[in-house]
């Protein structure tokens, strides 16, 4: 989610596959295509005049039905935020995300509120949930309106995971499109790598 990794992003910037300062090969490409950026997505209407839009996309093995349980349980005080082992081993055990599907975190519905990593009192509220393809959250951070959508799109025997973060009423747009974009890129790249690992060999 927004500001998902906090210290983990800084750690990963300096830790490659062996954790000794090689280039950040652990972070996979998560660029959305031009067509994906142009298309309308569920949740766009929540922040219709967005000042900043961050689109990410990556492909994982398996159909949406097998990917969905991992996506729906994401979050602070839930399954956590997935990262690859090579990064997680640098974090305290209490900060590592689960490596299994947890039944109690599979139940999520419109209106449910879940904590977020943006601050002690920051939350996301579920607006739309359509298993196994669509999950939309909304939030408000000070004066900033936020929507965050996750769409799972079948691609043969694989799934395209599409994420869109929309921010409205942004006063310091330059900061959001520089530091904010970098943080979002790192956190979603970490998610992509961590999710691929879990899909390949769940605990």
Please give a structural write-up.
- The structure is a single chain.
- This protein is of the alpha+beta class and 203 residues long.
- Helix content is 26%, strand content 26%.
- A six-stranded antiparallel β-sheet has the order 1-6-5-4-3-2, with helices on one face.
- The chain is globular.
Topology:
Layout: H1 7-13, H2 34-38, E1 52-61, H3 64-72, H4 85-88, E2 113-115, E3 123-130, E4 134-141, E5 144-155, E6 158-168, H5 173-200
Antiparallel strand pairs: 1-6, 2-3, 3-4, 4-5, 5-6
Task: Report a brief summary of the structure.
This protein has 203 residues and is α+β, with helices and mostly antiparallel strands. It has helices spanning 7-13, 34-38, 64-72, 85-88, 173-200, and strands spanning 52-61, 113-115, 123-130, 134-141, 144-155, 158-168.
Q: Which terms summarize this structure?
A:
single chain; 203 residues; 5 helices; 6 strands; 26% helix; globular; disordered N terminus
C-alpha Rg, in Å?
16 Å
Shape: globular
- What's the arrangement of strands in the largest beta sheet? 1-6-5-4-3-2
Kindly state the percentage of residues in helix: 25-40%
Low-confidence stretches: 2-26
DSSP helical segment count? 5
Q: What's the mean pLDDT score? A: 87
For the termini, the CA-CA separation is 23 Å
SSE pattern, N- to C-terminal? HHEHHEEEEEH
Main β sheet profile: 6 strands, antiparallel
């Amino acid at each position: 989610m927004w500001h998902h990794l906090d210290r983990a992003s800084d750690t990963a910037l300096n830790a490659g596959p062996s954790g000794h300062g090689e280039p950040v090969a652990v972070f996979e490409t998560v660029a959305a295509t031009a067509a994906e950026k142009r298309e309308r997505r569920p949740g766009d209407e929540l922040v219709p005049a967005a000042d900043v839009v961050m689109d990410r996309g990556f492909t994982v093995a398996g159909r949406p039905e097998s990917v969905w349980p991992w996506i729906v349980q994401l979050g602070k005080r839930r399954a956590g935020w997935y990262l690859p082992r090579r990064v997680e081993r640098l974090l305290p055990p209490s900060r590592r995300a689960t490596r299994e599907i947890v039944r109690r975190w599979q139940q999520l519905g419109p209106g449910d509120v879940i904590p977020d990593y943006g601050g002690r009192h920051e939350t996301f509220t579920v607006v739309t949930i359509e298993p196994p393809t669509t999950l939309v959250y909304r939030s408000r951070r000070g004066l900033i309106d936020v929507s965050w959508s996750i769409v799972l799109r079948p691609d043969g025997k694989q799934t395209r995971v599409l994420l869109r973060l929309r921010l409205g009423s942004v006063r310091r747009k330059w900061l959001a499109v520089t530091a904010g974009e970098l943080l979002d890129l790192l956190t979603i790249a970490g998610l992509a790598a961590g999710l691929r690992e879990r899909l390949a060999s769940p605990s």
